């Protein structure tokens, strides 16, 4: 990585972490995906029940594979026949893992969901929520974070899942209400009622989309 960009990411991450702390959340910074994996595993005690919604970033740092191979009870929705049971199990999990669609410099998190299993678990249920987020997810303010979530993350996800939405065809949000829309619920997390329940590992590399 370019040294100037690396320095910028480190400095910006500290600003975001201070913002998270002011909102009753915890923030950490890892320069690389490998460091992020080690950090994530150190935050999740062995024996914990762990599950997740969608989360490309979680996979990209190798966390899912490590949890499956290690001494953790990882509930993999993709491997379960009863998807609803897997989703419901998330609400009583020790740790819920997720990526972030966008976030602000001062620590506000923005996530968009179709079925709401992910955003509902972020809001309430699991004892801990651990986000993995590349520095590419950080935006200047809430307006820009919302635009990023709807015009970058949502179109790519729609394309990834082969959905028939206007954004999948144009690459930009059309504020649609078609049956395939995945922008059904938008969760803005501006404060955690429970100290430290929400933790964010910021990674000095681009992750997800």
Please characterize this protein's 3D structure.
This protein is an alpha/beta fold and 209 residues long. It has a domain at 3-107 and 116-138 and 192-203: NagB/RpiA/CoA transferase-like (Rossmann fold, 3-Layer(aba) Sandwich), CATH 3.40.50.10420. 39% of the residues lie in helices and 21% in strands. The protein contains eight helices and ten strands. The protein has helices at residues 3-22, 33-43, 56-60, 63-69, 83-89, 117-123, 142-160, 166-170; strands at 26-30, 49-52, 73-74, 95-98, 102-104, 109-113, 128-134, 138-139, 185-189, 198-203. The strands form two sheets. The chain has a six-stranded parallel β-sheet, sandwiched between helices. It has a four-stranded mixed β-sheet with strand order 8-5-6-9, sandwiched between helices. Strand 5 (102-104) and strand 6 (109-113) form a beta hairpin. The longest helix has 20 residues, at 3-22. The chain is globular, with a radius of gyration of 16 Å. It starts with a helix and ends in a 6-residue tail after the last strand.
């Amino acid at each position: 990585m370019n040294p100037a960009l690396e320095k910028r990411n480190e400095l910006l991450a500290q600003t975001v972490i201070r913002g998270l702390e002011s909102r009753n959340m915890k923030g950490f910074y890892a320069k690389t995906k490998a460091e992020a994996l080690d950090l994530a595993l150190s935050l999740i005690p062995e024996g914990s029940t762990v599950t997740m919604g969608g989360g490309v970033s979680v996979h990209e740092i190798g966390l899912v594979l490590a949890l499956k191979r290690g001494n953790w009870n990882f509930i993999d929705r993709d491997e379960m026949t009863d998807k609803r049971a897997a989703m419901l199990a998330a609400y009583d999990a020790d740790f819920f893992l997720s990526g972030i669609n966008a976030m602000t410099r001062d620590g506000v998190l923005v996530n968009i969901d179709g079925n709401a299993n992910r955003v509902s678990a972020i809001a309430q249920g699991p004892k801990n929520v651990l986000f993995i987020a590349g520095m590419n997810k950080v935006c200047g303010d809430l307006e820009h974070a919302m635009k990023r979530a709807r015009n970058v993350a949502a179109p790519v996800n729609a394309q990834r899942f082969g959905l028939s939405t206007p954004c999948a065809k144009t690459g930009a949000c059309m504020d649609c209400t078609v049956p395939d829309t995945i922008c059904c619920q938008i969760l803005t997390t501006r404060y955690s009622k429970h100290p430290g329940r929400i933790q964010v590992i910021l990674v000095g590399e681009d992750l997800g989309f």
